Amino acid sequence: DNTLRSSDGFFTIVQPRLDAIEEMTVSTAASDVSGGASGGVQIRFTTRSGSNSLSGSLYHYYRNDTWDVFGKTLNLNMNTWFNNRSVVAKPKLLQHQTGGRLGGPIIIPGVYDGRGKAFFFTNIENFYQPSQVTRNRTIFHERARAGFYRYLGPGGVVREVDLMALAAANGQLATMDPTIAKLLADIRQAAGTTGSIITNANPQFETYTYNVDAKANNWFPTYRLDYNFTNNHRFSTVLNWHTFSSVPDTLN
Fold first, then answer.
1. pTM for this one?
2. Which of 225, 214, 220 is nearest to 240 (CA)?
3. DSSP helix/strand/coil, 13
4. FRET label pair with 184: which of 6, 85, 95, 115, CA 20 to 30 Å apart?
5. Tell me, what DSSP letter sits at residue 115?
6. pLDDT band at 1 (very low <50, low <70, confident <90, very high)
7. How far is C-alpha 79 from the chain's CA centre?
8. Backbone φ, ψ for residue 17 (5° rounding)
9. What mean pLDDT, rounded, does the chain reach?
10. Which residue, among 118, 122, 85, has the nearest Cα to 236 in the 3D structure?
């Protein structure tokens, strides 16, 4: 059994692959002594093992959000309500999930025959997904960027205070810092190249919604070795190695 859990404040992303699993056990409330922890909920996965018969599989799961038929593009996924509200295009999605498994007795021709004694199992899977992720960011309103403080007055009416004029009237510096002004201008210019900008509940700001291009290329190899010393004694070892590669890292 593979008990996958964390005893600290962090968590581990565990994505068991279906073709690598023999069975799954869910324990709730008070668990037995094999769980290694008291109470709560535990999910345990048992990795497949080899047998006296050589067996395996190959698979490729494919998913696309569009389909070209006779020169016409059919949308298989609908856009989200929030994207429709913000007038943002549907995020693109393409998935390739390929892999294979193989298990059986360990046999070295002319040297060793492990039938009934020694077994191996391996499952290797790749998850490749070029996609887009919708993100929301808060930017200054154009009037706020020009030096006006905006707020809601009585009755929900937007009011403004010219901070540059106020500073000048009090003998203070009344010009924008050129570095900050250029940075805010660059942000505004970049926000105008894609996505949409809508009003914010706070009149000082606006909400910028856009789709981020991302590409995931993850590998999930699983290996298991078993050796039967006797009918009552077995040695088993399992290795699960998950490699996550996402550019950019949209999760964190």
1. 0.66
2. 220
3. coil
4. 85
5. T
6. very low
7. 19
8. -90, 135
9. 87
10. 118
